[in-house]
Amino acid sequence: MAETAARRGDPRALWPDVRSVIMLAVNYGPEGDPLATVARPEAGNISVYARHRDYHDVIKGRLKTLAGWLVARAGGDVKVFVDTAPVMEKPLAMAAGLGWQGKHTNLVSRDFGSWLFLGSIFTTLELEPDAPAVDHCGSCRACLDACPTNAFPAPYRLDARRCVSYLTIEHKGHIAPEFRVAMGNRVYGCDDCLAACPWNKYAQAAREMKLRARADLVAPRLADLTRLDDAGFRALFAGGPVKRLGHARFLRNVLIAVGNSGDAALADVARERLDHDSPLVRAMAVWACGRLLPRAALAELANARAPRERDEAVRAEWLAAMETRA
Length: 326
Hints:
By secondary structure, the chain is of the alpha+beta class.
């Protein structure tokens, strides 16, 4: 659907020659309950969009094919983007009539609910714009109330610093204690606000096979994820978006889930990561041990390891773990 360059989020700032933007959406709807794994503390929950091939690769190929067809038929120059440049994709998609930005700030479609990937074709052609979409959220606040970390200070406003998707994917440092319990077993991303949207009653399962969930990524066991080495991590997530996170940050997230599991048997896998090279991993291994081990066992472990720990953040985790269990 076409969107003229003069509209909100002016694309000419990215490419001065652009005259129109064609916005496209690809459905990646799940086949079952997207939050089913959240209720399984022994498993890691991976966001629906990351349970299959990297959508950038899938959609960019399609966009290039369509853009090539457009040039062959009508001429002009084109550029394609899939979340790879500062393109205001959601406002442009709303202006192009694909859907509206819901109160969770993501696009909502009357036909596909919240499960949409967006891509764009910038062109020097002058195309007639489509009618913009209308907001149909009304008084509903299901997405706002579903957020585990209260990341929405107001409808249509997201505080990314509190968002589980941001914390588990984009945030490069230690995750603040105030968010860890609320993260539950979400080891990569979060779908709670998307899944809560009532418009998902019209959602459809993805038809593109490359966007269908891999069985081994729907509910992987935390014990298995924690024991992955770097090579195993890269092999498991080859071709998917999780791989870009890196092994250390992924283990950071998994160990938080281990600490939230309530399963004392998982204390052993947390203990195994106390010697990891990354302080991100060691710190969350300490936190998980503090949540799962009996006080006496935790004290013995702390007395043996805390004195020789050189990283200040990890030492602080040992102190906090002991104070919490005092």
